[in-house]
């Protein structure tokens, strides 16, 4: 006996399924919430499918009488059938009764898909043209204050984008001087823009994707949604809220739903227009609908008009009071508490994926046609996962944000899972490595892959592989975000010391227990200066550099490092080692971007060459260029760090002893500072007791100062930048004229350390003068080692003098040449005493010896120029003369040689002039 289904039962069974029913019946509708062609009247773009509560609801403003209805109504009108016949078609599409043959269903779906694809292509072309035009308009805009429209709205001091030259938008000319408001989608991609001329006439680019697009005015964590741009500015100025401008009332709900998806737990306020003077208060109605959809509240102006009107008539303070009063009087409704529609008697028979305890299962429902009972088969897929959002990184790669608990440990983990490997072997392997169990069934994995791509939250976040300043906030290497980013940020990098970035104690406790004991001890204060200066390098666009503190065992290297590290986290666990590869250090640098990189004991490295390579690579701020799998090159890693290194030997000595050449570039990137003795033990028994007390205090109080410092920088950014620039100017002015560019570069780096320490006085508890003296003393110690003049010049002069000292009388043949004298093997040239009384020799050096041995490691022309400048090389006179001279005649011929002299008496070891 055939079961007779009621129309109401069929309608309930179809609830939530209309998106699949319509194509089966050959009815093409746009995506939910979108506009498109009408399957009834054939109109091009006035049909809207909103599918409220899954009932297939729609409206067409082109149909005669502006028709609307639910899914069954649409089937009736599109197929020209009555309710009973139409409901039978729906039942057949749902598989509730026999009916449509397979060929008919396939033909209907194919036709619907063709129509949908054609419309998608047309829509995509329209949207792309509008986006390209919007970008072209933005490229011709400049920010400015005082636009006439803004002046008329009481917002004269608010900057808006102003079009600098006329632009044709189809048949409409956008005149020079109009204001431009760009609109973006949830992924922060430009979609279209609105223009407003001096008289307030508004124009939205034709063909742009308006639904769900908005203009965001960033502010606090409370989110407000309004209609117009001027209204949004008034709400933001009054409250400081982050405001999303939907541009018109019809877009409020779409924007609200987009915002809710991105911020599932945020408080959302619909700053409605009060259309009380109209026949229908459409502003309130639409705002209330949007608020109900997202669990928000409505803030309505007490009188007719929008919030900008209220702002102009009552002032900013009254506007703030009115908005906040609406906020207090409303009950915020949680999305989780909203009443859900009751299940229909004939439940959804589509297979689904759902969580069952600690697992995710694929549920296949099947109805028993005899009893009407639904039996479910559950197929295990994997350990339960939460799909909490979507992300995109700096390179444009997309990710699925996944959260789960590891099998065994129960540790909660979050991962930015690359979309490109979802459903691939690499993706399943990654999930298993992360502590998830995954089915081995290929068919079930296909369902799981689709689920991972399509289900869950669409909240957007920025995925970053570098720590430091990212999108308005500061990201620590443990993925902790300090501050309020423009978009949520997820750190996808890795650091060997990530777990060390935690907090114990308060800033006040650090001052009393660590800062107080470090006071007056210059190297400890310098270590803290390095910690505080690390995040300010980005603010002044300074290059990376490091400070290397060296001294014998027992001089306090460990204690200094612990004091510096305690600013950011656990003082011992934050330490990294020089005992690593250059690539390993580069990866750590990216993970410590805009932060302190603490490197312990340079002598631990078994390969001094790696230290030399790393010292360059670390502070150049760019990693190796590597090829990509799909062709081309991967984006090179970039970073900006400040390193604090320790060791028993300075960098120069360490490399020299290993036979590695030391370049000046090493010594101006990693600054050698000898550790100074403890000068104030603050009443303790001796320096050992003082060191023990400092170390114990650092283990108790750590991490709080760094976070408070970042918050301070976010608020006082301009003040800190000004302080740094002022300090650099002062330091440069104090240097003697003979100071080389290298010394001046290093002085600017010490100036940054000083300015950071002074600006952080409220955190350290140290007086500004104390901080300045400590940093300046360390700079003086650096100068004692490096010298005031160009280090490469000094190194070259030393190298040439050393060559002459070693070879002057063993490898140079005396002139006039004595053929009876013993022959010299491996001769370097000739030597001649011009004046026997003066005891001065001239050394005619063969070109190949000068270029290969004398100039080893340097450009021979540069060496020759420096030798000529300091009086150690004779050259021919004349404008175009080179660096070689002809020798006296030997066997009737003259050859060209580099003519070297010993250093004049006034040439010191520093290459002074």
UniProtKB/TrEMBL annotation:
InterPro entries: DUF927, Phage_T7_Gp4_N, TOPRIM_DnaG/twinkle, TOPRIM_dom. Residues 109-128 are annotated as: Disordered. Residues 33-72 form the DNA primase/helicase Gp4 N-terminal Bacteriophage T7-like domain. Transmembrane segments: none annotated. GO terms for molecular function: helicase activity; zinc ion binding. This is DNA primase/helicase Gp4 N-terminal Bacteriophage T7-like domain-containing protein. SMART domains: Prim_Zn_Ribbon. It comes from Tolumonas auensis (strain DSM 9187 / NBRC 110442 / TA 4). Pfam families: DUF927, Toprim_3, Zn_Ribbon_Prim. It comes from the Bacteria.
């Amino acid at each position: 006996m055939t079961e007779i289904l009621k129309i109401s039962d069929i309608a309930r069974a179809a609830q939530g399924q209309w998106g699949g029913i319509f194509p089966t019946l050959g009815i093409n509708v746009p995506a939910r919430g979108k506009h498109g062609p009408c399957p009834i009247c054939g109109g091009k773009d006035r049909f809207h499918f909103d599918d409220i509560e899954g009932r297939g609801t729609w409206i067409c403003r082109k149909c005669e009488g502006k028709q609307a209805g639910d899914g069954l109504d649409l089937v009736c009108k599109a197929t020209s059938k009555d309710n009973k016949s139409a409901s039978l078609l729906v039942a057949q599409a749902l598989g509730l009764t026999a009916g449509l043959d397979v060929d008919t269903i396939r033909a209907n779906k194919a036709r619907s898909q063709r129509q949908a694809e054609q419309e998608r292509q047309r829509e995509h072309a329209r949207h792309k043209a509008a986006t390209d035009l919007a970008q072209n308009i933005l490229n011709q805009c400049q920010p400015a204050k005082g636009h006439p429209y803004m002046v008329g709205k009481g917002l004269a001091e608010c900057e808006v984008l102003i079009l600098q030259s006329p632009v044709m938008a189809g048949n409409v000319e956008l005149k020079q001087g109009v204001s431009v408001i760009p609109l973006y989608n949830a992924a922060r991609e430009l979609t279209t823009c609105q223009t407003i001329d001096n008289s307030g006439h508004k124009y939205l680019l034709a063909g742009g994707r308006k639904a769900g697009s908005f203009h965001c005015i960033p502010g606090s964590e409370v989110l407000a949604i309004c209609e117009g741009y001027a209204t949004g500015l008034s709400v933001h100025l009054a409250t400081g809220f982050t405001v999303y401008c939907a541009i018109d009332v019809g877009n409020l709900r779409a924007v609200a739903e987009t915002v809710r998806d991105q911020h599932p737990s945020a408080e959302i306020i619909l700053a409605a227009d009060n259309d009380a003077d109209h026949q229908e208060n459409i502003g309130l109605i639409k705002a209330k609908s949007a608020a109900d959809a997202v669990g928000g509240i409505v803030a309505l102006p007490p009188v007719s008009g929008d919030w900008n009107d209220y702002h102009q008539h009552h002032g900013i303070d009254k506007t703030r009071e009115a908005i906040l009063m609406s906020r207090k009087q409303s009950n915020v409704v949680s999305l989780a508490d909203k009443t859900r529609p009751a299940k229909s008697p004939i439940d959804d028979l589509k297979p689904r994926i759902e969580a069952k305890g600690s697992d995710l299962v694929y549920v296949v429902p099947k109805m028993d046609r005899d009893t009407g009972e639904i039996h479910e088969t559950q197929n295990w897929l994997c350990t339960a996962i939460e799909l909490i959002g979507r992300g995109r990184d700096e390179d444009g790669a997309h990710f699925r944000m996944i959260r789960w608990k590891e099998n065994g440990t129960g540790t909660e983990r979050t991962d930015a899972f690359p979309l490109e490997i979802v459903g691939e072997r690499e993706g399943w392997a990654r999930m298993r490595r992360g502590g998830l169990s995954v089915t081995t069934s290929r068919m079930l994995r296909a369902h799981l892959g689709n689920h991972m791509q399509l289900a869950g939250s669409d909240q957007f976040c920025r995925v970053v592989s570098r720590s430091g300043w990212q999108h308005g906030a500061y990201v620590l290497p443990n993925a902790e975000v300090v501050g309020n980013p423009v978009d949520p940020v997820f750190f996808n990098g890795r650091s060997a010391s990530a777990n060390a970035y935690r907090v114990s104690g308060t800033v006040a406790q650090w001052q009393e227990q660590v800062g107080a004991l470090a006071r007056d001890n210059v190297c400890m204060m310098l270590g803290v200066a390095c910690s505080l200066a690390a995040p300010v390098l980005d603010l002044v666009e300074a290059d990376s550099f490091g400070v290397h503190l060296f001294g014998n065992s027992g001089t306090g290297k460990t204690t200094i490092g612990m004091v510096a590290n305690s600013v950011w986290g656990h003082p011992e666990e934050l330490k990294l080692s020089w005992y690593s590869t250059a690539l390993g250090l580069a990866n750590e640098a990216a993970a410590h971007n805009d932060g302190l990189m603490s490197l312990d004991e340079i002598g631990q490295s078994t390969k001094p060459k790696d230290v030399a390579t790393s010292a360059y690579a670390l502070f150049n701020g760019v990693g190796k260029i590597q090829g990509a799998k799909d062709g081309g090159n991967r984006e090179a890693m970039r970073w900006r760090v400040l390193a604090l290194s320790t060791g028993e030997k300075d960098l120069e000595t360490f490399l020299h002893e290993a036979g590695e050449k030391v370049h000046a570039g090493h010594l101006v990137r990693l600054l050698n500072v000898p550790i100074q003795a403890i000068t104030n033990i603050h009443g303790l028994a001796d320096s050992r007791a003082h060191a023990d007390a400092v170390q114990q205090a650092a283990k108790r109080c750590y991490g709080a100062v760094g976070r408070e410092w970042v918050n301070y920088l976010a608020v006082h950014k301009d003040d800190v930048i000004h302080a740094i620039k002022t300090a650099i100017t002062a330091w440069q002015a104090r240097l003697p004229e003979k100071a080389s560019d290298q010394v001046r570069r290093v002085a600017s780096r010490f100036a940054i350390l000083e300015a950071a320490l002074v600006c952080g006085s409220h955190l350290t508890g140290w007086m500004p003068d104390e901080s300045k003296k400590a940093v300046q003393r360390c700079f003086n110690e650096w100068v004692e080692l490096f010298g005031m003049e160009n280090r490469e010049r000094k190194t070259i002069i030393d190298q040439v003098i050393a060559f002459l000292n070693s070879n002057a009388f063993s490898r140079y043949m005396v002139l006039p040449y004595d053929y009876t004298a013993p022959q010299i093997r491996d001769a370097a040239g000739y030597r001649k005493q011009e004046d026997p009384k003066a005891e001065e020799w001239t050394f005619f050096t063969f070109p190949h010896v000068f270029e290969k041995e004398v100039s080893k490691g340097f450009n021979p022309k540069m060496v020759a120029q420096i030798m000529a400048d300091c009086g150690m090389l004779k050259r021919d006179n004349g404008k175009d003369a080179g660096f070689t001279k002809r020798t006296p005649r030997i066997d009737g011929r003259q050859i060209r040689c580099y003519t070297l002299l010993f250093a004049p008496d006034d040439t010191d070891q520093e290459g002074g002039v």
